[in-house]
Amino acid sequence: MLPDQWQKTAKENKKKYAQFLKRCDQRKVIKQLPELHEETFAKIDCLTCANCCKNHSPRFKIPDIKRIAKYLGMKEGDFIQTYLRLDEESDYINQKQPCQFLNTDNTCQVYDVRPSDCARYPYTDEDVLLKREALTLKNSEVCPAVFTILEKLTAVG
Q1: pLDDT, tens digit, 9 for 90 and up, residues 100-145
Q2: Residue 149 in contact with residue 129, Cβ under 8 Å?
Q3: Angle at Cα 98 formed by Cα 94 and Cα 103, nearest 5°?
Q4: Using one digit for the tens of pLDDT, what is the confidence trace for 64-95?
């Protein structure tokens, strides 16, 4: 069960999480991630939250752009011009937040062909959780699943 103020707790525990991510036995933690991921997502319904879609933009890689444009019946250039912009790292991202494909019921209009970043988010079942510390710390304040997994990992050390 998530505490009511989980985002506040995530901010307060950011230093603890960072220390854990730096000193943990990565091989041991990576082995734990699939089970923690499954256990956590059995209790958390993304459709009640959608913070990721409201607060982040995925990177749209060329295969994502081709796939989504085709799905929407658009030319790739028109899709880019209508929905995307280049960020400071020259990655295509959404022009606006929340995501233009987020419906009012928190479902996704392009879910079946969504960008790979969306399909993989929040990276709690892969080594990205450990290897991209800044991203994980940011995600701990956006995604209740990341918060929950970090709390479990740091509780056992």
Answers
A1: 999 999 999 999 999 999 999 999 999 999 999 999 999 999 999 9
A2: yes
A3: 110
A4: 999 999 999 999 999 999 999 999 999 999 99
23, 156 contact by CB (below 8 A): no
Show me where the domains of the chain are located: 6-52+122-156, 57-120
Cα(43)–Cα(46) distance, rounded to whole angstroms?
A: 10
**Coil/strand/helix, residue 52:** helix
The answer to whether the beta carbons of residues 98 and 53 sit under 8 Å apart is: yes
Biggest CA–CA distance in the chain, Å, is 51
| Cis peptide, bond prior to residue 122, ω within 30 of zero | yes
The sign of the torsion formed by the CA atoms of 59, 87, 108, 112 equals negative
Amino acid residing at 141 = E
Helices within the chain (DSSP H only):
6-12, 14-23, 26-41, 51-55, 62-72, 76-83, 116-120, 128-131, 133-140, 144-156
